[in-house]
Structure formats: C-alpha cells, structure tokens
Amino acid sequence: MPSRPPKFRPEAWLASVALITICLISLGNVVVRYTTDASFAFTEEFSVFLLVLLTFGGAAVAARNNQHIRIELVEHYLPPAALKGLFVLQWLAGVAVMGVTTWYGSIFAMQEYDWESLSPGLGLPNWIYVIWLPVLSAAIIIRMTQNLIDRLRGKKDPEVIHES
C-alpha cells in the first residue's frame, strides 16, 4: 500500500474541533445538571454555533473530496466529452448557491457588527458567530473549484468510494 503525505485541511480540523467541543460541553452540562440540578447557561448558544462550524467545515471537506450527495445516474451513462460539461454545470450550480450564501452572509455579518447586536444568552457580539458563515461558504467555493479542476483532469481520489 503506497503511503501518501497527510492532507492538511483547516476546515477538517475546524469541524473536528467543533464536534469534540460539542461533545465535551454537552457531556459536562449533563453531568452538572444531574449532580447539582443546575446547568451551564452557555452550552446551547455555543453548541448551535459549533454545529454551524461543523456543518460548513464538513461541507467544505466533502466538496473537496467529491463526496456530496448528488444523482450520479447521468454521470455513469454520459460520454467523457459530455461528462466534462456536466461537471462544469454541477460546479456552476454549487457556486451559485454558495455565492449567494457568501454574499448575504457577509451583509448579515456586517450588519451585526454595525448594529452592535448581542447574543441573547451570553451577551457576546453576534458578529463573532455570524462571520463564519461567509468565510466557510467561500471555503466551500474554493474546495468545489479544486474538485472541478481534478475532475476535469480525470484525476480520481482513491479514498472516494461511491456506492451506486
């Protein structure tokens, strides 16, 4: 088995840290609640925020590794020349959706910063939570573009397993 250098993907690390943190603060909250009949006030607010990080970080990893859910029936029966056109069409659809998410997420983050709005639970600035939406949406666009380039070149990642 050939050895390959490990891939450094910041969004994969971010998603992993978010998942571990969600597990730890949720477990801590359960233990404290059952032992003291009180709970940590910050757990829900942080858990929701970390879940968004986990979702978008995982989506960026999936976009890079060509592992997003899609209908592959058409891909299996198209000739190679038409297949490249389909890859570009898939990329355009993904970039359109994530581009809109990045654009409106940026506007939303700027508004939260300008209005100095605070989170309802802990009173932290909301922009700290919201700024990750456009940043990670842009990361997904970058990873989709890298994946498109690999697919157009005919490169297949050996880790990708499609069950169809």
TrEMBL record:
Domain (Tripartite ATP-independent periplasmic transporters DctQ component) ranges: 22-153
Its membrane topology: Multi-pass membrane protein
One Pfam entry name: DctQ
Organism phylogeny: Bacteria, Pseudomonadati, Pseudomonadota, Gammaproteobacteria, Pseudomonadales
Chief subcellular location: membrane
Residues passing through the membrane, by range: 12-34, 46-65, 86-107, 127-145
Compartments reported by the entry: Cell inner membrane
Family, per entry: Belongs to the TRAP transporter small permease family.
Function of the protein: Part of the tripartite ATP-independent periplasmic (TRAP) transport system.
Name of the protein this chain belongs to: TRAP transporter small permease protein
Subunit organization: The complex comprises the extracytoplasmic solute receptor protein and the two transmembrane proteins.
InterPro entries, per database record: DctQ, TRAP_DctQ
Keywords associated with the record: Cell inner membrane, Cell membrane, Membrane, Transmembrane, Transmembrane helix, Transport
